[in-house]
Design goal:
The protein is mainly beta. The chain has 3 helices and 21 strands.
Length: 338
């Protein structure tokens, strides 16, 4: 039995469909026949292959007990990745199998490796572990990215090879990455920083295909929409051709940005919601796709979930907004909803 204090912290879950990627020319690793389940635990990312133990069709209507499902489905570790200091071999990404006996992670970096900077978590993290705050596989390019507590984003293939390291501009104790998102083409990322900033990146597909690397360039730093020093919890690309970027965080603000701008961006297009007593932890946007252009979609509904971080639960846990009758979001420069 695992001790209570040693239970891992899981921040990421994602099913990876076995269907071919939308941009196979960018993919540089093998294709799995079965679905994969991506999970994280502390300083690891795991890929589990979902295996059916029988070829017979499961009849959930007559036999849906947990015991019967456990006998017909199982998870087999395809690969795990351990994240440590970038000074280690493989830029701090070590492919491994934690279910095999004898695996030991490399020792945590000392002050000579980390440059004297305090590890994330301070006294609560005496071993100096580099935690995985977010991890996501992109179906368009077959790559996996992990946002880490040391302020880096490591991009790997599904074989555990590190292809790129994204270092946040500026650095500092609050420059850990809490979350990020891919666009649907697999050529852009947006990262949420603990300082309240958004940072966008462009991924060179040519480098992935021909050079075996993932060359990422910082495109813009978005600030001014969220309260400085308050962490952001998430972001997503929205709008036709995903030319808009939505972000949310501890300050209770839901901001919309021009995702195509470059350089330092001092303010968002609109603040759709602002309630300092209602930190926003999760947002989901549904889009209606244009039948004539599969790459074009417009947001129609927004679900906003959160709640007060202190003092127990009060208020409404979930808000739903229908924006189909609103004017273009780009025209909502003065909108603020409480």
């Amino acid at each position: 039995m695992m001790e209570e204090d040693n239970k891992p912290q899981i921040y990421s879950l994602q099913f990876i469909d076995p269907s071919p990627p939308r941009h196979p020319e960018l993919v540089m690793d093998e294709h799995y026949n079965n679905s994969l389940l991506l999970t994280s635990s502390d300083e690891y990312v795991h890929l589990w292959e979902v295996i059916t133990e029988t070829d017979e069709k499961i009849n959930l209507s007559t036999n849906n007990s947990p015991e019967s499902l456990a006998n017909q489905w199982r998870l087999s570790e395809a690969l795990s990745m351990h994240f440590s200091s970038t000074s280690y071999e493989g830029y701090g990404v070590t492919p491994c199998h934690i279910t095999e006996p004898g695996w030991m992670p490399p020792p945590p970096p000392g002050s000579d490796v980390s440059g004297g900077k305090a590890a994330f978590g301070g006294e609560r993290n005496p071993e100096g572990l580099i935690f995985v705050f977010d991890a996501s596989h992109c179906p368009a390019n077959g790559l996996l990215a992990a946002a880490l507590s040391d302020g880096t984003i490591r991009i790997t293939n599904r074989q555990g090879r590190c292809l790129s390291i994204l270092n946040l501009p500026g650095g500092g104790p609050q420059s850990h990455v809490l979350s990020f998102c891919w666009d649907r083409t697999g050529t852009r990322l947006a990262t949420c920083v603990g300082s309240g900033h958004l940072v966008t990146w462009h991924l060179d597909g040519y480098s992935v295909q021909y050079q075996g690397l993932a060359i990422a360039t910082c495109i813009s730093v978005l600030e001014g929409g969220h309260e400085p020093g308050r962490p952001l919890f998430g972001c997503c690309y929205v709008g036709e051709r995903e030319d808009l970027l939505m972000s949310w965080g501890m300050d209770g603000r839901l901001c919309v940005w021009d995702a195509l701008l470059m350089g330092n961006v001092p303010s968002p297009i609109a603040v759709l919601k602002h309630d300092e007593k209602y930190p926003i932890f999760a947002v989901q946007v549904t889009s209606k796709q244009n039948d004539h252009d599969l790459q074009s979609s417009s947001p129609t509904r927004i679900a906003v979930g959160g709640g007060p971080s202190e003092g127990g639960f009060i208020g409404v846990p979930l808000y739903l907004y229908d924006i189909t009758r609103m004017p273009s979001i780009r025209d909502l420069t003065n909108v603020s909803t409480n």
